[in-house]
């Protein structure tokens, strides 16, 4: 059929106006899982939409424009009363000195912004409208003469709920009291939020409007019943199943997934929970959730014969509501009057423990916690009396050189994250932060005041790969194993034998010495060019440690062949006096080869010179760390999902069943590796672990796998239960690997361990100085000498030196977790094996 025939038949279809009939499709199966519940839209949303087109034409001429305020001031909102619960909202914004906040009887609002558009008008009174003129949709002219702000549905409903019938009240809400379009004001106001929330008469937690089925109303009433009952077992009955489900529905509200709410509640003297028309005290909510968690396993049994989506919840601990209840009780020391006295936790600990909480702007991963961290909080009494520099001091001398993070919204996400990691390493003398999954991912689209998107490096681990993922995923169960490095200040291992980290960040350092591959290329090109390169104005390296290069060490490294000062900027003979090669005299400068060599040399030299990088410093994601290769991965299992330890993994660990029905011993490599040689408390495993492991091995399936979920479902004895829970925390979605260290063609040592799911043959097991566990690195060679992008790199061939490394993740290596890899070498061998790794 030619094109004319096709056009002819197409025209017939159009003339006849035929359509393909809709026929029944096979019934689809829907995945049963719980999702975070967003706030419901306004109940009168249709009326808003009908008026929106009419209003928007005139609204652009009457938008409220914020007057600039000083850094030591904020705005309070005077909310006008209304007897009509659905009447328009009228406010007056009042600039107030931060130091005078305690004199104003205001309440601070804590809420989730939600995903709706900002299309709800809030009428802001100015001097022209202070006589109480009524403005409504009915009076078009009066409505359009008002100055207005447009807010999202959830804030609009919250203001309607808080509004009184006869009295004007004072409220602080960030969506109105802060100019959200002014990055400078936002950065200046974020530190003030500690005073705003701590000085408020109360903090009102708005969970959203009631759902249509009134489940949230029932849950709020049930919370009161849970707190008041003297015998909780009277509520753990089948006739109470729906009440417990409604409570889960309530705490699955999106407010419990937001990062900013952490500081808002932590700073509050008194907090109340509001949902629909219902209210209760935050303390009652905390008690109800704690009781729910205490008896959860008994309550969960009530779900077994009913909805599968609720039965998938195996634990309340990863839920945002439970994390908040646990963590907020230990954020501040308080006085007898409930006023804040002193923050307890440091910033690194807060970022690590509160990682699942989300925010629209990922830079708030750090910024949202500054006001409640011990190094950066402004609310504690002693710190209010100290200069800012002294109040921010850490417990480490290096912290004076690297100041703690501040809320700076002019920086891109990479700058914020790199600055945080640099400060943590400097302050603690530990590299463990690169193993924790703490970071929120980059946005997918730009936005107002978020014009630059960046690519994050592999050594900044995302919370998506955390044990329970982000807050939207935790309610559906475990995703990955627990972190081997543990929480800050509570490390379980010492693989680097106390060696301090040697770290350099590409964003804040000049270019490193060239690799051997680049060195050869530069010398070759330089020889062809046969001319001295131009001097880099004022920036030629003379070994004096200039150029901003910062090597962060907690104490002098005994393995460093030079002092820190001389190692800061290693001399580079390629940049000062390249050595021309002996070339064929027939070559001349007009030849094609000579012109090519001239271009190659200029490009390579530009890549090597400090300050002439091809990547802007604000987007340079490289980190240089020192350590040594422990071995290369020769085999790895598939990831072990859902706690299923496969037969091939068990055999690699050393389990060799002989087909008999009885076993009286289990190799150490098996039972210790499956639990990472630690108990759940991070201490050495209890003496009964081998017996518990043996009992688990006696219950392998016909295919030789340990299916931990099935064993737990049989309600096993306590020792098996505890061992399996620890096994799940170690092996879930991880791999078992074999590795070996080779010197030449000789294999000197074989290794066995547990690694992250991406571990593959050819990866390297490395000890990085300052890191408490071994790490898996993936070597890469750049296909283009000037980039390390994924589409322009390849794996090195045998004997080829890598240009950079991908940080795959942390690992457990049997027999190498307490410094044995270093203590087993003398100084000369350790010096010979130590090298710098460029992580990207």
Any key phrases for this structure?
840 residues, 5 domains, 9-stranded mixed β-sheet, 30% helix, 16% strand, globular, HET
Report on the architecture of this protein:
- InterPro entries: HET, HetReg/Transcr_Mod.
- This protein is an alpha+beta fold.
- The chain has five domains: 45-180, no CATH class; 215-476, no CATH class; 512-612, no CATH class; 621-630 and 736-839, no CATH class; 640-732, no CATH class.
- 30% of the residues lie in helices and 16% in strands.
- The strands form five sheets. Strands 14, 15, 18, 19, 20, 21, 22, 23, 24 and 25 form a ten-stranded antiparallel sheet that branches.
- Strand 8 and strand 9 (278-281) form a beta hairpin.
- The two termini are 55 Å apart.
Helix content: 25-40%
Number of strands: 25
* Biggest sheet overview: 10 strands, antiparallel
Report mean pLDDT, rounded to a whole number: 80
- N- to C-terminal separation? 55 Å
Low-confidence blocks of residues: 127-145, 381-400, 512-518, 520-526, 528-556, 560-590, 605-614
Radius of gyration, taken over Cα atoms and rounded to an integer in Å: 32 Å
Which structural category do the helix and sheet elements fall into? alpha+beta
Strand content: 15-25%
Number of helices: 30
Number of folding domains? 5
Shape: globular
Pfam family, one: HET
Biased composition (Basic and acidic residues): 26-43
Domain Heterokaryon incompatibility: 106-264
Protein name: Heterokaryon incompatibility domain-containing protein
């Amino acid at each position: 059929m030619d094109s004319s025939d096709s056009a002819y038949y197409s025209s017939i279809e159009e003339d006849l106006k035929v359509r393909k009939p809709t026929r029944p499709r096979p019934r689809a199966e829907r995945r049963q899982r719980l999702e975070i519940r967003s706030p419901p839209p306004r109940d009168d949303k249709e009326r808003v939409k009908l008026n929106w087109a009419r209003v928007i034409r005139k609204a652009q001429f009457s938008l409220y424009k914020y007057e600039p305020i000083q850094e030591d001031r904020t705005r309070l909102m005077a909310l006008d009363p209304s007897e009509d619960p659905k009447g328009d909202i009228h406010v007056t914004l009042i600039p107030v000195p931060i130091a005078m906040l305690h004199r104003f009887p205001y309440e601070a609002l804590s809420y989730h912004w939600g995903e709706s558009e900002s299309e709800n008008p809030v009428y802001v009174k100015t001097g022209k409208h202070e006589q109480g003129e009524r403005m409504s949709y009915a009076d078009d002219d009066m409505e359009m003469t008002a100055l207005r702000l447009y807010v999202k549905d959830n804030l609009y409903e919250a203001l309607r709920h808080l509004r009184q019938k006869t009295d004007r009240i004072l409220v602080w809400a960030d969506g109105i009291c802060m100019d959200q379009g002014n990055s400078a004001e936002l950065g200046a106001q974020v530190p003030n939020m500690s005073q705003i929330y701590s000085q408020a008469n109360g903090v009102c937690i708005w969970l959203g409007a009631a759902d249509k089925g009134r489940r949230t109303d029932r849950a709020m009433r049930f919370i009161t019943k849970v707190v008041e009952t003297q015998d909780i077992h009277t509520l753990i009955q089948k006739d109470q199943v729906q009440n417990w489900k409604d409570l889960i529905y309530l705490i699955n509200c999106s407010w419990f997934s937001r990062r900013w709410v952490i500081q808002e509640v932590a700073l509050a003297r008194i907090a109340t929970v509001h949902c629909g028309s219902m209210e209760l005290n935050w303390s009652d909510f905390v008690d109800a959730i704690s009781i729910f968690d205490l008896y959860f396993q008994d309550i969960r049994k009530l779900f077994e014969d009913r909805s599968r989506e609720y039965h998938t919840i195996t634990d309340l601990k990863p839920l945002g509501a439970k994390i908040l209840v646990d963590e907020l009780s230990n954020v501040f020391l308080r006085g007898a009057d409930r006023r804040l006295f002193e923050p307890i936790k440091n910033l690194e600990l807060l970022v690590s423990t509160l990682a699942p909480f989300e925010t629209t702007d990922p830079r708030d991963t750090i910024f949202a916690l500054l006001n409640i961290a011990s190094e950066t909080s402004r609310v504690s009494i002693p710190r209010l009396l100290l200069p800012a520099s002294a109040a921010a001091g850490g417990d480490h001398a290096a912290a004076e050189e690297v100041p703690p993070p501040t809320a700076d919204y002019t920086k891109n996400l990479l700058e914020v994250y790199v600055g945080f990691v640099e400060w943590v390493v400097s302050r603690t003398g530990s590299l463990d932060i690169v193993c924790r999954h703490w970071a929120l991912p980059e946005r997918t689209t730009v936005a107002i005041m978020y014009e630059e998107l960046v690519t994050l490096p592999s050594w900044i681990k995302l919370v998506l790969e955390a044990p329970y993922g982000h807050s939207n995923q935790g309610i559906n169960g475990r995703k990955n194993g627990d972190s081997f490095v543990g929480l800050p200040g509570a490390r379980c291992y010492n693989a680097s034998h106390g060696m301090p980290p040697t770290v350099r960040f590409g964003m804040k350092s000049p270019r490193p010495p060239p690799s051997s591959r680049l060195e050869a290329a530069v010398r070759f090109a330089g020889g062809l060019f046969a001319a001295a390169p131009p001097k880099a104005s004022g920036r030629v390296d003379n070994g004096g440690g200039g150029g901003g290069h910062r090597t962060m060490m907690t104490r002098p490294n005994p393995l460093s062949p030079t002092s820190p000062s001389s190692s800061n900027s290693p001399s580079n003979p390629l940049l000062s006096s390249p050595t021309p090669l002996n070339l064929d005299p027939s070559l001349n400068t007009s030849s094609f080869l000579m012109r090519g060599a001239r271009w190659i040399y200029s490009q390579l030299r530009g890549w090597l010179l400090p300050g002439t990088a091809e990547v802007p410093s604000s987007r340079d994601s490289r980190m240089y760390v020192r350590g040594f290769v422990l071995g290369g991965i020769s085999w790895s299992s598939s990831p072990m999902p859902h706690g299923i330890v496969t037969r091939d993994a068990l055999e690699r660990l050393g389990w060799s069943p002989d087909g008999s029905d009885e076993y009286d011993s289990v190799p150490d490599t098996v039972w210790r590796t499956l639990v990472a040689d630690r108990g759940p408390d991070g201490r050495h495993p209890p003496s009964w672990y081998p017996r518990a492991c043996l009992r688990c091995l006696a219950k392998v399936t016909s295919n030789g796998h340990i299916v931990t979920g099935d064993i737990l479902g049989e309600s096993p004895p306590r020792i098996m239960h505890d061992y399996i829970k620890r096994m799940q925390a170690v092996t879930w979605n991880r791999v078992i690997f074999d590795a070996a260290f080779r010197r030449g063609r000789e294999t000197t040592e074989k290794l066995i361990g547990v690694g992250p799911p991406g571990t593959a043959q050819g990866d390297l097991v490395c000890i990085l100085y300052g890191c408490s566990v071994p790490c898996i690195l993936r070597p890469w060679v750049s296909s283009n000498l000037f980039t390390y992008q994924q589409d322009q790199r390849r794996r090195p061939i045998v004997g080829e030196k890598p240009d950079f490394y991908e940080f795959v993740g942390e690992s457990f290596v049997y027999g190498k977790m307490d410094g044995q890899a270093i203590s087993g070498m003398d100084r000369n061998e350790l010096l010979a094996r130590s090298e710098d790794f460029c992580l990207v």
